[in-house]
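Form 7-S
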Amino acid sequence: MTGTTWLIVISERVAVVLLVRISRTRLPGFEKTALTVLAVVPLVGPFFAWWLCHQPAPALPSLQDRQSMSLNVHDR
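Output:
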């Protein structure tokens, strides 16, 4: 097998792992469908799907800026 073939095989194995992970998430159906279609694209698809799937957790309430709704950087 050539190098390109190995890259495609590796990317599709990553895609299978992502498909299982995507199916277990609580995302809406259209997002699951879009991520699934993106994940099966050879080479770059699994990596973009993985990047889009990783959503950071919300910040702690003590770290959230809830004091002011306007931009006032000098009076804090």
